[in-house]
Design goal:
Distance between the termini: 23 Å
Largest sheet: 7 strands, mixed
Strand order of the largest sheet: 3-2-1-4-5-7-6
CATH architecture of one domain: 3-Layer(aba) Sandwich
CATH topology of one domain: Rossmann fold
CATH class of one domain: Alpha Beta
Strand content: 15-25%
């Protein structure tokens, strides 16, 4: 994603570092990743087409085994070599914005919760569509507007109270109304975008921050504040999160995208 003046929003080197660091920890959030992947891959049951060769983008060791269990030969790709290797089969460390594959290399491409750190999402989608064979299928999930809203608000309000301002700490999220249009612009046929939700609850809200780190989802905004945050920032923000029956509810709103080559 780029700003209107052409500047990049995300620091891709930071994204790679975060995913390298998260690779040995990602098992902590495997149930959430699996829940999202299962809901995305359920769409394969809605078609009679049989797929033989798939590209798993950013699957964090979860998606590739699911695809192979369906009898689909799968290559895993991630910006992080460590994370790509978790797929357990053929793996490629590469940038989603500069795919190292020729045209019509796959008949299925799956990107589960992995494209929201891409600067040029329309350009990446065009490359993915070109990597699909005729009548190939593209499936993707992206965090949608409304995800972690309470945490975003609490962080901004706590930082404003402590410092008089708020540094960029959370990334922009896709609006479901725009998602199908992105697929259409990239040349996909029959683009569909719908919304799914996963509800979580944390007895200790600090675990939420640890889970985000374990998933490689920490701040990689290019304009982020590199200074160590105020020591009271996170305790103050976490204390402000709403509780229900002694737990902090967290709702993940996920845009599910489907398009055909």
């Amino acid at each position: 994603m780029r700003m209107e003046d052409g500047r990049e929003i995300f620091d891709r080197a930071a994204v790679r570092r975060h995913r390298d660091r998260a690779a040995p920890l990602v098992g902590q959030v495997r149930p959430v990743l699996e829940a999202a992947a299962e809901r995305l891959l359920d769409r394969l049951d809605d078609t009679t087409k049989r797929f033989t060769r798939a590209l798993d983008i950013g699957g964090r060791g979860v998606v590739a085994p699911m695809l192979r269990a369906r009898g689909i030969e799968t290559v895993s790709l991630d910006l992080s070599a460590r994370m790509a290797a978790l797929g357990g089969g053929p793996a490629v460390a590469a940038d989603e914005e500069f795919l190292p594959f020729g045209a019509e290399s796959f008949d299925l491409v799956v990107a589960n919760l992995s494209l929201h750190w891409v600067n040029d999402l329309p350009g990446a989608l065009i490359q993915l569509r070109r990597a699909l064979r005729p009548e190939g299928l593209f499936l993707a999930s992206l965090p949608a507007l409304g995800t972690l809203d309470a945490l975003r608000t609490a962080l901004a309000e706590a930082e404003a109270a402590l410092t008089g301002g708020a540094a960029p700490r959370t990334s922009p999220l896709v609006d479901l109304r725009d998602a199908a249009g992105l697929l259409q612009r990239a040349g996909f046929s029959l683009p569909v975008a719908d919304l799914d939700e996963i509800d979580l609850a944390y007895a200790d809200p600090l675990t939420l921050l640890r889970d985000l780190r374990a998933a490689g989802e920490t701040n990689a905004l290019r304009e982020r504040d590199r200074r160590i945050p105020h020591r009271a920032l996170f305790p103050m923000a976490l204390a402000a999160l709403p509780e229900r029956e002694g737990r902090v509810p967290v709702r993940l709103r996920i845009a599910m995208l489907t398009g055909w080559g």
